[in-house]
Each structure stands twice: as structure tokens, then as C-alpha cells.
Amino acid sequence: MLSPTPTKEPEMGGIDTDELPTTVDVLRYGEPGADPTYMMVPGDDGTKVVGAHSREAMRHRRRRLGVGIVVAGVVAGVGYYLGELLVSALGFLVVVAVAGYERLRPDGVPEVVGRNVHAEEALETYEIEGYVDEVFVM
User: Where are the transmembrane segments (predicted)?
Assistant: First the structure.
């Protein structure tokens, strides 16, 4: 008599459930109402990932602010050199508009929506698109 061969647990969403740890953190990328992306990382690593994204977003924001200040200085210098108050004022308004846009612009930092959730529960609750098992944080 043949014994039944053990069947491998089905993959959920392209993720092999045998490879998952017991608990995971679930990260949401994007806004809640605008079709967000959900990713899983090992339990307790979600805060590290969010911190790394926050630091990177701050670096980019500072770099853009520095470029804006340099551009404002160049525009003011050109306006002073040409004796054109209108050029200086227009340049100032453009820089202020860009700075305002930067404040409202989403920074791409994920949010931890599930902390130390059982992996199977996370796969059932969220539309998980991937699992990262080794988190690289600088």
C-alpha cells in the first residue's frame, strides 16, 4: 500500500509560508486609501526599517532645501546685478512655492501597521506583496 506523500503548504501571494518566521512586522507603503503596498519583515525589525527610511527621507529633504537656498541666492544675485526687483521677487516666490510643495510632498516612509503578528494571520489580513528576511539598515 502506498503512503500519501506529504504535500507542501501552498504559497500565499508568491510567499513560501514554510520560510516565514513565527511573527512578522507588516509595513504599509503609501497612503491608506490610495492602494497601499504591504511588505513583511521579521518581527521587531519594522521599527528599524521605518527609522532607516526616515533618515534617508531627511537626507533628501535637506539636500533639496540646500539646492533651493543656492538657487534663491543666485536669483537674488542676478536680480541685484541687473537692478531688477521683479526678477528677485519672482525668484523668491518660486523658491517659496517649491519649499511649500516639499512640506506637503509625501516622503515615502512606511508605517508599521502590524507589530509581531503571526505570519499566517498577516497573510490573511493584508494583501502582502513580499517578505524581506534580511533587513539591511545603515
Answer: 65-82
Identity of the residue numbered 51: G
Q: Which residue intervals of the chain are DSSP H helices? A: 46-82, 85-104, 119-125
d(CA 106, CA 54): 12
Q: 60 vs 22, 54, 64, 109, CA distance in Å? A: 35, 10, 6, 12
Express each pLDDT in 32-52 by its tens digit.
Answer: 778 889 999 998 899 999 999
Beta-carbon-side half-sphere exposure of residue 45 (alpha carbons within 13 Å): 15
Between the alpha carbon of residue 64 and those of residues 16, 44, 77, the distances in Å are 41, 32, 20
How many whole angstroms separate alpha carbon 58 and alpha carbon 62?
Answer: 6
Helices within 83-118 (DSSP H only): 85-104
The answer on pLDDT for 10 being more than 50 is no
